[in-house]
């Protein structure tokens, strides 16, 4: 859909003023200009081409102010509007998740941006590319793999799954990242909503990580192992993900917590081999780096 020339000129003028304010590091003023331009869009606002770049501009301004939660909210709006393969949106989401210390989602979205656009998208983002390189073997990540895999599904199904994922993230984080019992309840409810086979849904990856980590933090190790064993059946390749040993690492942790040392050792070896040792850079890494040394790994 196209805006009238008069309305487009008004929006363009405000946007240019916003860009000028960004160049002058006056981010609050930039947000004001972008917001005014956004308000000029007729309803439903999501139908207009200008919607994405205005919302993304507001998100970018909040990012520069280091208000990462607000920035993420705006980029999630873009993502939910259908920009599920836009590398810039995925990059910004990944950067925000990183700054919010949600490293699982940071890796997810930064890697997806890399798969679509390659290293060039990180030209001015060396901090994030460096972190991603330390946690994923990018030499084995095929550019565009995610996009090619998802093409097997209809655009409608992909959008529905991504909408469900964003809804889940919003709801599960409603009481903070440490509300483990609440996260478990929400995650199980979403798991029950999935059609069979449940592990064929992309959202199941996030549900597994939430459930396993929450049970580990609550020291309910048998339940953590239950979900880790199911997680092991998740097909990374079919979902367009690179198997960096993440599954093996979590299965190993859960076996170790349940006293199954031989099984834990087996999976730790696999995780270390697949990740080239990078599995020890993330959550639980420091603890199990020492434990693996004790196990002779």
UniProtKB/TrEMBL annotation:
Record InterPro entries: TPR-like_helical_dom_sf, TPR_rpt
TPR repeat ranges, renumbered to this chain: 11-44
Keyword list (alphabetical) reads: TPR repeat
Q: Domain of life of the organism in this record? A: Bacteria
Does Protein transport count among this protein's keywords? no
Q: Which PROSITE patterns match?
A: TPR
Q: What is this protein called?
A: Tetratricopeptide repeat protein
The organism's lineage is:
Bacteria, Pseudomonadati, Bacteroidota, Bacteroidia, Bacteroidales
């Amino acid at each position: 859909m196209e805006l009238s020339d008069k309305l487009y000129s008004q929006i363009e003028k405000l946007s240019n003023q916003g860009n000028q304010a960004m160049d002058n590091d006056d981010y609050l003023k930039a947000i004001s200009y972008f917001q005014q331009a956004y308000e000029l869009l007729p309803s439903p606002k999501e139908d207009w081409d200008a919607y994405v770049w205005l919302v993304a501009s507001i998100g970018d301004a909040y990012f520069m102010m280091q208000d990462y939660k607000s920035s993420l909210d705006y980029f999630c709006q873009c993502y939910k509007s259908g920009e599920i393969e836009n590398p810039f949106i995925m990059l910004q989401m990944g950067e925000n998740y990183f700054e919010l210390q949600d490293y699982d989602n940071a890796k997810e979205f930064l890697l997806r941006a890399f798969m679509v656009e390659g290293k060039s998208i990180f030209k001015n983002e060396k901090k994030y590319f460096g972190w991603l390189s330390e946690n994923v073997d990018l030499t084995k990540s095929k550019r565009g793999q995610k996009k090619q895999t998802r093409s097997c599904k209809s655009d409608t199904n992909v959008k529905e799954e991504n909408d469900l994922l964003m809804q889940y993230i919003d709801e599960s984080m409603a009481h903070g990242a440490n509300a483990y019992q609440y996260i478990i309840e929400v995650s199980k409810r979403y798991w029950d909503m999935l059609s069979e086979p449940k592990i064929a849904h992309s959202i199941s990856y996030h549900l597994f990580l939430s459930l396993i980590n929450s049970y580990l933090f609550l020291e309910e190790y048998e339940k953590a192992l239950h979900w880790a064993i199911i997680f092991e059946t998740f097909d990374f390749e079919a979902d367009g993900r690179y198997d960096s040993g993440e599954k093996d690492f979590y299965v190993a942790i859960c076996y170790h917590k349940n006293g199954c040392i031989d099984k834990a050792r087996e999976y730790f070896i696999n995780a270390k081999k697949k990740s080239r040792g990078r599995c020890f850079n993330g959550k639980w890494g420091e603890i199990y780096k020492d434990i693996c040394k004790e196990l002779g790994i």
